[in-house]
Design a protein that fits this description.
globular; alpha/beta; about 40% helix; 7 helices; six-stranded mixed β-sheet; Collagenase (Catalytic Domain); zinc
Length: about 200
């Protein structure tokens, strides 16, 4: 199943595999930094374990704690407080390969999400995000690549948590959720750099 993070961003393609399958894609099996788990805030304590894997070939700094908070905040927004979610941060060539292997789409993309279980309050899944696409898009619209990457993480988590963006109503609900979560993370600029603002 294919979804686009931004229908007005032709170079940004989001992929979502909504199949609940035992044959997991092992998106997290990368040469990576150790996992990090940190609650989004003292008020919103989450027991969701977040494993962040950063591919060894990346040269950009990646804020593991910020990614962990983004996953937990997006999951909490959808009513999940327990479970395990993995995030692999990679580059365009690698996400292209994953996209081709698992979804038969032969191009790089921003985020690919794989949901395995979403029975509240427990959630399980994985996602892969491209730091190259985040950097390219951030340069294009003039905001932080870190914030763009976190938007992909939030978007992927919302997909794993059951949201979709196939039709206009679903897209509108997804965009609203993204803004709420990003604002909770202290990224108020989302209102200036959201999809609607760039249209």
């Amino acid at each position: 199943m294919s979804n686009t993070l931004d229908n007005n961003r032709p170079n940004d393609r989001h992929e979502n595999d909504s199949q609940r399958s035992v044959d997991r894609p092992s998106a997290i099996d990368a040469d990576a930094e150790p996992p990090s788990s940190q609650p989004p805030s003292a008020a919103d304590v989450s027991t969701i374990q977040v494993e962040v894997a950063i591919d060894s070939q990346l040269t950009s700094d990646v804020d593991v704690a910020a990614i962990t908070r983004a996953v937990q905040a997006a999951a909490a927004h959808r009513g999940y407080s327990q479970g395990e979610l993995g995030v692999r941060v990679t580059d365009d060539p690698t996400i292209h390969q994953i996209n081709a292997k698992h979804l038969n789409h032969h191009y790089a993309t921003d985020v690919i999400s794989f949901g395995y279980s979403d029975t509240r309050p427990v959630i399980e899944g994985e996602m892969v995000v491209s730091i190259d696409t985040a950097q390219s898009r951030a340069d294009e619209i003039g905001w932080s690549a870190e914030h763009e990457l976190l938007l992909y993480v939030v978007h992927g988590t919302l997909h794993i948590a059951g949201m979709d963006d196939h039709d206009e109503a679903d897209r509108s609900e997804m965009r609203a959720a993204e803004k709420i979560v990003m604002t909770q993370l202290g990224i108020a600029e989302i209102h200036r750099f959201s999809v609607e603002a760039q249209s």
